[in-house]
Fold:
Amino acid sequence: MSAMSMLSVWTEGAVAVHTNYTVAAAMLVVSLVVGAVALSAGRLLSPKRRPPQENPAPEYGGRTGHKTWVQLRLRYAVVALLFIAFDMEMVFMFPWAVAFRSMGLVALIDMFVFIAILAAALAFAWKAGAFDWER
Structure:
């Protein structure tokens, strides 16, 4: 290979590399401009800050205009956790269904034990009143 052909291969590669970095640099500039425009628009369109005399710090001891101590209902979180637990059941059942024929009776017994544990958890949650919304 002659020096001239090596030079042409090197310059073609350099042009390709230069083009790739140009696209990356253009994307970087565009993303920085979009971010700056979004931050500027937020600052321009947001409500103006009140002076400190009208907006005392929370340690000031002023009364709030609403009830600040609120009791949260954990029923929603308990039902969500139960849903996740029983949804994870499918993660174990699908591979079991695929491998059931090759594993035989052992796989069937394992799945019955697994379902029995889940049924016991469901019975415990039901007895504890996790599904009772009025309580």
The chain has two domains: 3-60, 75-128.
